[in-house]
Amino acid sequence: MKILKIIALVLLVAIVGIQFVPTTRNQSDTVPETDFMLVNNVPKTIQKKLEVSCYDCHSNNTQYPWYNKVQPVTWFLEGHIKEGKAELNFNEWDSLSARRKKSKLQSIIKQVESGEMPLSSYTLIHSDAKFSKEEANEIINFITQLKDSL
What we know:
Blueprint: H1 2-18, H2 36-39, H3 44-53, H4 73-87, H5 98-114, H6 120-123, H7 133-149
Helix pairs in contact: 5-7
């Protein structure tokens, strides 16, 4: 019984201790001129849906939930954000070559069609980020037109 108390105390100290480990936040006050929304004539309905469903992980400005201040949740979220930005950063869209843009647009189409994006782990908590069939079709049609115009 004494060993369980020691283990519990060590775990409690560790959990409290990791709360003080600093992390970097993915937040910016500016929207660069290279942003996907500024470069392309994105309809307002699609723009709003992309911001809600994609920009938290695929831009330089994440809208963090309250639970982001609790470790190890912060590490988990930051890992997803870094991975998402490495794959596609909408804020850096216009710095990509035409070939790379086409590739990214094709990837967006495939992932929206298959339901891979937005991630189910994200939509579990952010239900407003889910795409209805109509929204997914609208986004796919817009992205396809954009890809064909490059």
